[in-house]
Amino acid sequence: xxxxxxxxxxxxxxxxTPVLLRCNYSSSYSPSLFWYVQHPNKGLQLLLKYTSAATLxxxxxxxxxxxxKSETSFHLTKPSAHMSDAAEYFCVVSDGGTSxxxxxxxxxxxxxxxxx
Amino acid sequence: xxxVTQTPKFQVLKTGQSMTLQCAQDMNHNSMYWYRQDPGMGLxxxxxxxxxxxxxxxxxxxxxxxxxxxxxxxxxxxxxxxxSQTSVYFCASSExxxxxxxxxxxxxxxxxxxxx
Lengths: 116, 116
Prior knowledge:
- The structure holds two protein chains of two kinds.
- By secondary structure, chain A is mostly beta strands.
- Chain A contains no helices and twelve strands.
- In chain A, the strands form three sheets. In chain A, strands 2, 5, 6, 10, 11 and 12 form a six-stranded mixed β-sheet that branches.
- By secondary structure, chain B is an all-beta fold.
- In chain B, strands 2, 4, 5, 6, 9, 10 and 11 form a seven-stranded mixed β-sheet that branches. A four-stranded antiparallel β-sheet of chain B has the order 1-3-8-7, with no helix packed on it.
- The interface between A and B is medium-sized, with 31 and 33 residues.
């Protein structure tokens, strides 16, 4: 069975400093991994995805994530935080099912706070 | 270019009342999903539909029923609402995925449901 663990429920950074949001996964299959962002009172938006191509994945708004199979990790980073990055971030794993469809398993979320 | 549309956006129910949450997508996706989001618990899958005419239980299906009316529409019904069903409900859709390759799910804006 697949699962995902977000190691921090809350992260605070100062504007202009790096962001690191940690995610570990467990999967018996070759996983697809995603990061989603949810701004207050909004729906979820896809930030980036890993689907067994390049291990360093670049997403929108300057975010990127690196897939490390040996560490079963998919941490999200950004070199310089902006006030607009304040939101909740979800790490998601998905395994391809034998029927050709699949389910998404969500982590419990990391709330990012950006301090002026 | 609406994407995934959910109705209603807000709803208050009394315990024991019933209601149906509607969801429609215009991206010609095969798979559709219903999630609930509760504080500190991330998103949990209620039901999903891999394709028109099929539905399957997710992680927390008790107290809910679904109907995949056609390829575009996937509704969620609460037959007898309970306070424990107070939550934010998200509908999502995605292309069917093979061998781990696929797009991330697209989400609606959510329905905030309160059961008193």
